[in-house]
């Protein structure tokens, strides 16, 4: 009986670990037109990841999107942070936007990507936010290929998230900055013949 309980416990932990890792979408970086670093904070892993990708020559430009802070784009503070860390700031720009969700950020950033003629973009965000971000940007920015290259986050441990308070807060839907599920209604190109656009329902 004890042996069976031990097997069930191992299988349960393996399942939980799979769920934790499911939030992460990580592709091998490829050369791209630009690197898009999503807003969240002006320092930390995602900011460093974006700067590293530029330094490694994957794209000529890293664009740091984010809300305004004290009247200036959040990305401006990221550039100052990187300069203090010894990174060259050439090829790094900021884009101030007004957005309160990943969907709104994708909608706000898309015109700038189109203006710059971007066809392939490396998408950088926190690991736990990467799958949701990839689905959102690929859905709301048609015509642009997004390659998800997330930054590891010290607050999220996918293999043992249920044992760590900060990881649990990021995993569960009631975490403010991340949710396991995001229901997206995306307009499709088809119509039902009555002037009503059909919609695809995505779970991300």
Short description:
The protein has helices spanning 2-22, 45-55, 74-84, 102-115, 130-140, 165-171, and strands at residues 34-37, 62-66, 68-69, 72-73, 92-96, 120-124, 145-148, 183-191, 197-203. It has 204 residues and is of the alpha/beta class.
Describe this protein's structure.
With 204 residues, this protein is of the alpha/beta class. The protein has a domain of 134 residues: Rossmann fold. The chain is 37% helix and 21% strand. A 5-stranded parallel beta sheet has the order 5-2-1-6-7, with helices on both faces. The protein has a two-stranded antiparallel ribbon with strand order 3-4. A hairpin with a 2-residue loop joins strand 3 and strand 4. The C terminus is likely disordered.
Set out the fold topology.
Elements: H1 2-22, E1 34-37, H2 45-55, E2 62-66, E3 68-69, E4 72-73, H3 74-84, E5 92-96, H4 102-115, E6 120-124, H5 130-140, E7 145-148, H6 165-171, E8 183-191, E9 197-203
Parallel strand pairs: 1-2, 1-6, 2-5, 6-7
Antiparallel strand pairs: 3-4, 8-9
Question: What number is the mean pLDDT?
Answer: 83
Overall body shape: globular
Topology as a string of helices (H) and strands (E)? HEHEEEHEHEHEHEE
Estimate what percentage of residues fall within beta strands: 15-25%
Broad CATH class of the domain at 21-154 = Alpha Beta
Distance between the termini: 39 Å
Based on the coordinates given, report the CATH architecture of the domain at 21-154.
3-Layer(aba) Sandwich
The CATH homologous superfamily of the domain at 21-154 is termed HUPs
> Largest sheet, described in full?
5 strands, parallel
Low-confidence stretches: 173-204
- Which structural class fits the helix and strand makeup? alpha/beta
| CATH topology heading of the domain at 21-154 | Rossmann fold
**Rg:** 19 Å
């Amino acid at each position: 009986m004890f042996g069976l309980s031990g097997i069930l416990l191992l299988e349960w932990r393996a399942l939980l670990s799979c769920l934790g890792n499911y939030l992460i979408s990580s592709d091998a970086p490829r050369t791209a037109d630009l690197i898009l670093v999503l807003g969240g904070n002006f320092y930390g892993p995602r900011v460093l990841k974006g700067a590293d990708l530029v330094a490694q020559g994957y794209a000529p430009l890293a664009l740091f999107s984010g809300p305004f802070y004290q009247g200036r784009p959040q990305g401006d503070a990221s550039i100052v942070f990187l300069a203090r860390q010894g990174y060259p700031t050439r090829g790094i720009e900021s884009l101030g936007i007004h957005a309160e969700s990943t969907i709104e950020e994708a909608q706000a950033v898309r015109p700038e990507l189109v203006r710059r003629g971007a066809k392939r973009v490396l998408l950088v965000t926190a690991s736990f936010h990467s799958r949701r971000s990839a689905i959102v940007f690929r859905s709301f920015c048609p015509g642009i290929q997004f390659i998800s290259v997330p930054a590891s986050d010290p607050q999220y441990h996918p293999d043992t998230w249920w044992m760590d308070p900060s990881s649990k807060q990021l995993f569960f839907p009631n975490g403010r900055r991340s949710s396991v599920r995001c229901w997206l209604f995306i307009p499709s190109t088809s119509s039902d013949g009555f002037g009503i656009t059909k919609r695809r329902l995505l779970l991300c």
